[in-house]
Design a protein that fits this description.
Blueprint lengths: L12 E4 L2 H12 L2 E7 L6 E8 L2 E7 L19 E5 L4 H12 L3 E8 L4 E7 L5 E7 L6
Helix pairs in contact: 1-2
Length: about 140
Amino acid sequence: MNQPANNSGVGPYLTIDGVEEAISFYQAVFNGELLSKMMAEDGERVLHATMRIHGGTVMMSDEFPEYGGHPAPDMERGSPVAMSLRFKDPRNVDRVYALALENGGKESAKPEDMFWGDRFAQVIDIKGHRWMLVAPLEKPET
């Protein structure tokens, strides 16, 4: 199995109802790179996949309720957890937000300059996972 060179640190493991579709979304929106994918014995569900997204590692699998696995979020229930993508350039918040919507994502919080000094937006991907898009605003000259 091809693992990222730097496999230390914290990385999310997502349960998804339809990993194949999610992989396509993450590639189109976040320029995600699929590092590995292992199919389940049924030949239909993904047992494990690893992607590199914006320098981090995201792992995922389809639902496996028969083994006591947790259910995946959906567009109605949503997810109590959000992934945060930090960018250097605030324009990337708007660009990635627009890409997410163009590819079937759902608006959660439109891009906005926030009081804490970041450009911020939030989008729900096509499988119900929340993604926060964040970039520091330039500090004004004093």
